[in-house]
Amino acid sequence: MNVGTIGILGVGAVGGSIGLRARRNGLRVLGADVNDSALTQAFAAGAIDARAGADEMAGQVETYVIAAHLEPTLREIERLRGGAVKGPALIIDVSSVKVPVAQAAAGLRNFVATHPMAGTERSGISAARPDLFEGRPWAYVPSGDRELDERAGSFIETMGAVPFAILADEHDLAVALSSHVPQLVASCYAEIVASSDTVARQLRGPVACELLRISGMSFDMWRDVFQANAGNIERPLRFLGRELQRVADALAEDDIESIRPLFG
Amino acid sequence: MNVGTIGILGVGAVGGSIGLRARRNGLRVLGADVNDSALTQAFAAGAIDARAGADEMAGQVETYVIAAHLEPTLREIERLRGGAVKGPALIIDVSSVKVPVAQAAAGLRNFVATHPMAGTERSGISAARPDLFEGRPWAYVPSGDRELDERAGSFIETMGAVPFAILADEHDLAVALSSHVPQLVASCYAEIVASSDTVARQLRGPVACELLRISGMSFDMWRDVFQANAGNIERPLRFLGRELQRVADALAEDDIESIRPLFG
Prior knowledge:
By secondary structure, chain A is of the alpha/beta class. The first copy, chain A, has ten helices and eight strands. In chain A, helix 7 crosses helix 8 and helix 7 packs across helix 10.
């Protein structure tokens, strides 16, 4: 293990941002990625010092960051658990659903499940920025090992973010409401705007802009998240759908006053 | 009529912003408001040069801006139609539904119905900014009198905005989708977040932030708009509600792939 060295598996928007920030902090950054040209771009962007094979990287670094989508994250955790890797003083993931990660990682030494609450609708290294996490909450699931959890908290602080301890199931319930439901609302909304032949596309309010902005995100990024967190997303989404229909009824019946309680 | 003088009825966020910008452009700005302390604040904020009574203001100014909510706007149009005011070379309103305004103003000399697509979730003069309209579309309903419409377009340009000609009914359909539906979605979403006991409030994504931001708007500001535009809002709102329920069903049935088409 080389003190002051960090390994990042997956040099996309989040992994690349971690690399840029870590290098700015004076760390040596190794990068691994299934996509070779992503590594070349990450190196050119200054997000990594050198590439490494995923196989050996974990054995060389002090901090190991799995910066992949949910499914590859679970596979990597499986691989690390099966292997003889003793290396990193801290292993974290950054995927957006924590119950399956915490379950998969049971018994994996020095692992802390985390989730930075920052992101971008764009993916890939071109969306990486060293200040992506600045001032944003970064959730982590306490492992029960206080020293390890402090290491995770310190790492999060070096990224400019604010550590936020939360249980895995509580996290997944919270992000269903704060992130996954809004994403699905945005996608459904964008579908309606796209199918309308009005000039709504030009006459956008700020919320419409924001909804249409994130509606452009890739389904492949979200697929596993929706599947893994379906149980938490379904209920508020159904409730929201029913509320909107109730409001539509109120409008149809000229019963506008019944909407008032929605406005706090 | 005093050339280079503008009268603003209603010195709230929009009227105040028009005043700030007009004064920066070298115009003399008169302000009228049912609320006396609003006028004092507008004067202190530099948004008006002097107060005037609404009754005489229209007779003194070159441009007369009705910067009020929908119902008082309709009342003012009624008053101007009934009166002997011959003054202003241009009268505009800035309310957010145009069909009832265009109907009410039929025959009112030099009137053009308009709607700046800019705003703020805060109301009152403290939310006024001279650059509120900078680069934003500002819709207007052509009156048929080319010279008058050019005057309206020029005025909009002096506000830093981009004139956008549109028929009244087309406008109302467009803003139902681009502004009124998102507002109602935000209000319903905020209701769900408020009633949840998760930490969703802390772990907010950017869209959740935006939805919760506008959900704080006052119902009294929206009431007349929802009522006047109910016919255009109801259909897309109901469709959106049904789509969200369909997605909830897909999640419950582990049929995630059926969501894919929503992601363009």
